Amino acid sequence: MPSHSRRLQTKPVITCLKTFLISYSLIFWFTGVILLAVGVSGKVSLAYLSLASEEGTNAPYVLIGTGAIIVIFGLFGCFATCRGSPWMLKLYAMFLALVFLAELVAGISGFIFRHEIKATLDSAYRGAVKNYNTTDTRSTAIDTIQKTLLCCGVNNYTDWINTNYYMEKGIPTSCCRDIANCSAETLKNPDKAKAIVFIEGCF
């Protein structure tokens, strides 16, 4: 009789644990979908990263790969929980432990080297602005950042005044609030340009 009573008490606990695991797996799966979306279409942050390398960055592929793995294991976690398979649940638990450790290491590393990372991106961004020509990869990254973040230059729009590109064509059109209002003559005049371009810097 006590054994039967114990089983009755255990069932709600197991049901609760299964519900928790399925909910967690769905959240885990959803984060994987987000990473996939960022890897496929998110160009703003990746544009910043591409400035730090002349040959671009593999970050999109890393995000897509990571997102795909998380999506697969998220579904696997739901399936394992519903099946109640011990070896599947153990495998899923090992994967979650590895993900937790990876995130912990990444978080600690990012915190420790945050100033170095910021300095590297700042230097790369300034270099890209200085050598801007509208055609190479880094210049395209600059345009993407300015259009998407609604910003212009490093600290503000006047950073473009000391560049070779400004001497020839003025402030880039990617700084324009409305491209229809941006004429070549206006973009070569800092005072007039102030009214039609984004004033705040991107960094």
Automatic annotation (TrEMBL):
InterPro entries cross-referenced by the UniProt entry: Tetraspanin/Peripherin, Tetraspanin_animals, Tetraspanin_CS, Tetraspanin_EC2_sf, TSN6/7_LEL
PROSITE patterns: TM4_1 (PS00421)
Gene3D superfamilies: Tetraspanin (1.10.1450.10)
Keyword vocabulary terms for this entry: Disulfide bond, Glycoprotein, Membrane, Transmembrane, Transmembrane helix
Disulfide bonds, paired cysteine numbers: C152-C175
TM helices/strands, residue ranges: 21-41, 61-79, 91-113
Keyword check for Electron transport: no
Pfam family, one: Tetraspanin
Primary localization class, coarse: membrane
Membrane topology: Multi-pass membrane protein
Cellular component annotations (GO), alphabetically ordered: plasma membrane
Protein location: Membrane
Database matches in SUPFAM superfamilies: Tetraspanin (SSF48652)
Family per record: Belongs to the tetraspanin (TM4SF) family.
Record-given protein name: Tetraspanin
Species: Mugilogobius chulae (yellowstripe goby)
